[in-house]
Amino acid sequence: MADITNQNEAAAETAHTENNQQDNGSQVRIWPAVLIVLVYAAVAYGFSLLSSTAVQSVIGLAGVPLVALVLLIIWWFAASRVPMRDRMAGLVVFVAAQAVVVLSQKANGPILLAYSIPAMMTGAVAVLTITFWLRWTARRWAVVFYILICTGVFIAMRVDTVGGDLAPYVSWRWNANAGESAKTLPIPDVHNTAALPERPGPGDWPGFRGPHRDSHVVGVKFSTDWSTPPKELWRMKIGEGWSSFAAMGDYIFTQEQRGNKELVTCYLATTGEMVWVNSVDASREDTMGEGPRATPTFDQGKLFTQGATGIIQCLDAATGNTVWKRDLTKDTEMKVPTWGFSSSPLVTGDLAITFSGKGDGKSAIAYHRLTGEVVWRAGHGSPVYSSPHFAVLDGIPQILMTSDFGIESFVPETGASLWEHPWKIKTTPRCVQPLLVSNELVMVGTTFSLGSRLLRIQKKDASWDIQGEWTTKKFRPYFNDSVLHKGYCYGFDGDRFACIDIKTGDRKWDGNRYGGQVLLLDDMDTLLVLSEAGEVVLIQAIPDRFNEMARFKAISGKTWNHPVVAHGKLFVRNAEEAVCYELPVSTTSP
Q1: Distance CA 143, CA 76 (A)
Q2: Which residue ranges form the domains of the chain, and what is each CATH number?
């Protein structure tokens, strides 16, 4: 009997000791978790500094935190010394918090995990570390309280869109985002008349990326001393959209979304005053944002436009009145692509040509510029977010089109296939324009792992010979177009600005991460970049080194729209506002 009593007392004492140890915060083994968090922070910081492409960014935003989270879970269950019931409860609380964050969003909820998971897991480890002197029960509730606070903070956030690196843009729910602000913008009943030239002249910018769709600005010089930034002439709220401007004489044209109306608008270049507006009942919203993606094209007094839902219009550029209207979804029997129709119409001869991405011989479609009648359909590409490109190769005029298929060439008048170079992509489709290097050389750019390729294209008797000069994975443009200057290509490897030797494909240098779009100021040997963050940056167009000359903050909000330099002014816009700057006059070269 005494032995039994002694055994019971020993068991009770052992249980009491174990309970005391469990309630003693010093028994928690925290150092492995601290080590995991520190290594995670270093790796994530390295990705933020060194990554260029969206894939690398996603690895840094999602892959690295998930690996760290798995390691922390292993530590939590295998080596933390926390009571088992608390280990299970802790995992349930963490998972439930992430689920609440995701479900709190109307759209794009999972994208917010790129911020909420790192914040909660690193913060929880930090709380356990700084409360080492407390008993376990107090430390446990401190972590729970922290996770609840974090959950509340992320519930109060809203994912508005994603950047070029696929990182989410967030705002507080009580602040109006670009889409909500655009819905409140009025649609003025303005029908004035613009006094326009019949054809583009010096200083005009008649459409997407300029007169030749190559982002070259000729005959322009201005001071690069921006210690005093260029003078702001006007700034205004504008409807959503990723369209750029066409600039003709004293007027600029663009496309925008206001409420459930898709607009083509004309503004006075000197003041920003609206001259006329053309509206159709259409709207488009997705992860990348709302509104039109294409840029108007001016030709012989007409304006040719394509909306995000596929509405093609020919307008009287002076009044905004509709000359003819077509619907791509009906003309090609296809649905609106994932990111909307994005092709800026190309006008050549009597045709207005655009790209739908239907495939099956219907990707490219040509309309008669005066009547809107369908003249031809052609092409394999699907989907497509780039635009038709006019070229003369080996003396033969042709229309080039890059797509997920590769690159195709068509006879402008008939759409007959001249040549093609299959280079298929299965992930994100090609979005950039082909880069014309010479009358025989064309560069095709691709994001992610494929890179860029230089093709030599020659007519031999009745056939075409297409040969690859080089392929590089060190230059991977996404939707950021490139420019050619004195034998070197300047543009974006992902969102990092870079220079490559066009003869070899070798990278000469890589510079800062800007995203955005670039113009080449030919007469100044200077590059003008409008970054995704809304900064205007001047960079020397030289191959031996990266040299940023000047920069200033031009506009707020995510900026993907191409900048425009016309008649001594710089025009920039995004999905929230448009701004015009007067470029400082200079009589000397930079």
Answers
A1: 13
A2: 11-160 (no CATH), 207-582 (2.130.10.10)
